[in-house]
Specification:
Strand content: 5-15%
Distance between the termini: 35 Å
Number of strands: 10
Shape: elongated
Helix content: 40-55%
Number of helices: 12
Amino acid sequence: MGFLGLFNKQKKETLDKGLEKTKQSVFEKLTRAVAGKSTVDDEVLDDLEEVLITSDVGVDTTLKIIKRIEERVARDKYVSTSELNGILRDEIAALLAENNTEDGDSWELPQDHKPYVILVVGVNGVGKTTTIGKLAWQLKQAGKKVYLGAADTFRAAAVEQICIWGERVGVPVVKQQMGADPASVAFDTLQSAKANDADVVLIDTAGRLHNKVGLMNELKKIKEVMRKVIPEAPDEVLLVLDGSTGQNAFEQAKQFAAVTQVTSLAITKLDGTAKGGVVVGISDQLKVPVKYIGLGEGMEDLQLFNRREFVDSLFGKS
């Protein structure tokens, strides 16, 4: 049984508004790049390369997009600058599709087992716990029974924060005292969720990267312990990144991908930043699908990511 990601009729409106700063920045740069030009030539392509890099798409991904556009220009012989927006939109959507990023309008929970277990990772300050809270709210709105696990026992504030979200959303939170073994919390959460026939479990983890070996061991132990309760757990490892940090988000993504198998991405704080291009670059470089994007403070402002709508909002629909 699927549920609509958003429960929000104004989904596209929120997306347009959330990406406004990025769109304005990209548009202004694109306009300058094609000023006085009627066709897409080498100079326009050089300028376009600069536009994408300065929009936080990232160098490697930008070069890939430019190569595709060069091939298209060579094939079609004549490409007008007025067509550039549409071509960019098509190529970026195609790139996102190759990374298994789907057009997320709904999300199906697997029928063969429950609870569906999501292990949430990411450094402190990226909006990890807020993302968990909003996701729990959306799942509950869809009639799902949700459990939260406070396995970030490294900071008292983290446990407190997830408990506040649990109360706000009206879902149970399994916790232990600060400094407890995170794997023990994950074990308790899964046992409790299984005993109470929960549909989904979201487990928060410690957000620190200064000791990668420690982080890797901790995540590995959490997974091993969870599998004693549910053999296939976790179903998903969701990495939360702060989109407004641009290239820093890239670095964090690479470091997390090196220590654990990340299966999906949530990119937050895209409203109020001109760095929306980072969504494209991170997905392409990690080969991991973007599943959610955060576009504001509201519960419904965490959206299931739709690549086609995203590029339409970014480059304007022609």
